[in-house]
Amino acid sequence: MIKIAYRIPGWLVPTPVLLTFLAVPYLHLVLLGMGEKMALVLAVGIAAILAGGLVAGRRRIYGWLDRTVRIVERIDPRQWLYLVLGLGLILRICWAGIYKASLQSDFAIYFDLARGLVERRAYGGDGAYLAYWPPGLPLFLAPLIAVFGPETWIPLLGNLLITALAIVLTARLADGLRSVLVARMAPLLVAIWPANIMSAGLASKEQLLIPLLIGVVLSFLRCRERGSSGYLLLTGVLSGMAALTQPSFILIPVLLVLGEILATGRVRAPLRHSLFVMLGLALVVSPWVWRNYRLLGDLVMISTNGGDVLYRANNPRATGTYTVRGEVELQGLDELERNRRGSELAREWIRRNPRQFLRLAFRKLIAYHGDDNMGAYETLRRGLGIGGTRLIISKILSTGYWMLIWMLILLGWLRNPSAYHRLALSIPLLFFICQMAIDSVYESGSRHHVPFSGLLAMAAALAFERRPLHLDPDR
Fold this sequence. Notes:
mainly alpha, globular
């Protein structure tokens, strides 16, 4: 057998781990009113203590983890998957049944766009623009609305389907690591993820992206196992669906090629694979590009909101997260001009204000890593006007689980470092870091890491595996 020299960078795992350990305390100390400099000093200390404590006490922690999963090993794999699937669906139904939140902001817009596809056979218009919003989620919701009508529970039904798919695909992807425990624990971590449970009633594009990204990685690995170009085409099709849902994922083929080159040290085969992936992506995206050209008279890849978002994230009024408008008002412009003008203003501001740009980039990284509260905030606070104890407990539960995931990832990396060089884990981490880099330039927020829930759950589940998983060049 030819020995392959793996070149996955050593910082791929600890960098996002340490950023999360830093960002969570820093963000919450600032929210409590502490100055940014003092909060940074304390957050660095907390991150160091937490990381050091996990490293020093890892053997004892591994003992606790081993004892918690002994019962899991005795359950039949199929029965376990059904149990996890039922648990995930029941938790979401119960949450949505108790907290029947009305859709607000982007969630209401995406639902209305889906409704327009069914009732008017048109996308956008009437103040929603023709291509301002990416169409992935409305295209997913439209068939449900066509069958059941524009009922308020349609987003819940869609999220139940998404959850079931995410759990099953996570189990299939985890099977590739040849670890019974990872294949059992990864779907469980997906099923009980608090922030996603609390998003059950929302028309959230981030939820749709969870199974799409898992499917991309799974189909790509199946191609490497079986040598079938059909799986590469499927990878491209799923990548195109993800790009129509979130335009930044148009970069998926590039990241797949990069990951494969880093993993194998070869160039020719990854480039050949990328051609099939890009063909599959083009089959999905090109009809939408043609539709945009026909209606707008200009080449718009997916959506026209990129320039607007870029400017609102890079101007004297920018905070690092969502703001209603920048210093220059763009609202009155048509969507093409708004996109073009926003890009020009943003690039000019970045060129003239490099220090402010870097300061904002730091704040954006903090916002990306610092909490996992989208479901709690959008359902309770914005959807129902609920604050106080229930909101605080929901936020603590969500962000605490987010921290737990990254603690498990660090423990898994320390326990099975070579396993993270496999494409099944290294490519998801490349996806996550790429989105992190994009968020450091554009608007950021915790909702942007939600699509990686399933992939991160698999990386975290590796902490439960007692056996060393030796490096497998074919994976």
